[in-house]
Amino acid sequence: MGYEVDKTEEQWRAELSPAEYTVLRQAGTEPAFTGEYTDTKTEGVYSCRACGAELFTSGTKFASHCGWPSFFDPKDSDAVELIEDRSHGMLRTEVRCAKCGSHLGHVFEGEGYPTPTDQRYCINSISLRLSPEE
């Protein structure tokens, strides 16, 4: 798929830290309970660390206690791309930034969280950048 932000892997490597590159461009996962946004309650907008696209808001963030920031809905329905992921012997739904194709995390449904959508967008902190409300 072609993305609005289209860079070579060399360009991504030059712009991102090694850890950011591993998660955003190689679909890695940061260790649980280590990300800077796991427990933050700061109000604002969470954007893609790779391209700056607005992805989630603090109004949809909730405490899932899973080790990664969790949201029950993206900021806009077209902000993220959902892709079937059969890696690691599991069937999951990968979440990518719709603007640049960077890996963000996974979305899960039917876990029983008391949210309006019954979804948990489990997103790596390192994939995001928070812009606090002023």
Automatic annotation (TrEMBL):
InterPro entries: Met_Sox_Rdtase_MsrB, Met_Sox_Rdtase_MsrB_dom, Mss4-like_sf. Residues 9-133 form the MsrB domain. Signal peptide: none annotated. It catalyses: L-methionyl-[protein] + [thioredoxin]-disulfide + H2O = L-methionyl-(R)-S-oxide-[protein] + [thioredoxin]-dithiol. SUPFAM superfamilies: Mss4-like. It is an enzyme of class 1 (oxidoreductase). Its EC number is 1.8.4.12. Keywords: Oxidoreductase. The keyword Oxidoreductase applies. One of its GO terms (molecular function) is peptide-methionine (R)-S-oxide reductase activity. Pfam families: SelR. This is peptide-methionine (R)-S-oxide reductase. It comes from Streptomyces physcomitrii.
